[in-house]
Amino acid sequence: MSILFYCEGDDGQLLQTFRHRLPDHVIIDWSCERTEADPSDITAAIVWMPPVDFFDNTPRLQTVYAFSAGVDHLLLHTGLPSQATIVRLRDAGMAQQMAEYALYGVLHFQRQMGLLRSAQRQKHWAQDDIKAISAAHVRIGILGAGALGLQVAERMALNNYPVTCWSRSARINEKVRCVNGEQALGDFLNSSDVLICLLPLTDATTGILNAGLFDQLPQGAFLINPGRGAHLVEQDLLDALESGRLSGALLDVFSLEPLPEEHPFWHHNDIIITPHVAAQSLVDESVDQVIESIRTIERGELPDGVVDTQRGY
């Protein structure tokens, strides 16, 4: 049985790593070896951003191992075989990075760094303008209670911030408060001075960061979006900043990447832009997880990270 391989941007090192770590498997490089392979032997694939014809002529494909935590690029792929099971990365070193990124954004809001930066540009000594705010009075709301969301929440709690995670279905965590369902969303938003979006991208969450949601946040709330660019209605964010509904935003992901040079976000004083670097998969940890999943399935067991294609994660 063979594994079909394609990871966009790989210079060959990742492919060689898998071949070294899986010597008992035939790993086919889709870019240059697919025409020589027997389609009936291909039962699995390791992929990141596969081309439109990647899944052509794979009638026996059973398992797709996503070299990423997000799988929206796979679920939208028109060639994905309906019978294939998708297994995604669960963390791969991303949770620690995401917690650090989110903590930076929260501190930016709490310590009023936007105001200080503005004062610096005006050469104004703003000492008398700044009022100290304790962490205990900065309420953190996290949209999403998956592996990343919960670990970010735990980091916030360790730094003495009151934190609540919201998800569509129930989650239980002994260290942080979790709420769920549409009936809890309004109160959750009303009490989120900083809102962090770590939801998966699905039909239900596309455009969730919109004017209606912003209007339910406290006046002057701060938005952090390191999840998916399509979660955000960009004009609604600009309008919320203009009206003062939001005081600022830290954005790592965008509907179109790289962000076009003419985009208004580049020059907005209340928006901090980072180029999709909040949490990058660590190669060694990612390879370990994929191999662990392959071995688990070969033992006839179900690995962690199996995607519910109806939910989208």
From TrEMBL:
Its EC number is 1.1.1.79. Residues 106-278 form the D-isomer specific 2-hydroxyacid dehydrogenase NAD-binding domain. Pfam families: 2-Hacid_dh_C. Keywords: NAD, Oxidoreductase, Pyruvate. InterPro entries: D-isomer_DH_CS, D-isomer_DH_NAD-bd, NAD(P)-bd_dom_sf. GO terms for molecular function: glyoxylate reductase (NADPH) activity; NAD binding. It is an enzyme of class 1 (oxidoreductase). This is Glyoxylate/hydroxypyruvate reductase A. It comes from Granulosicoccus antarcticus IMCC3135.
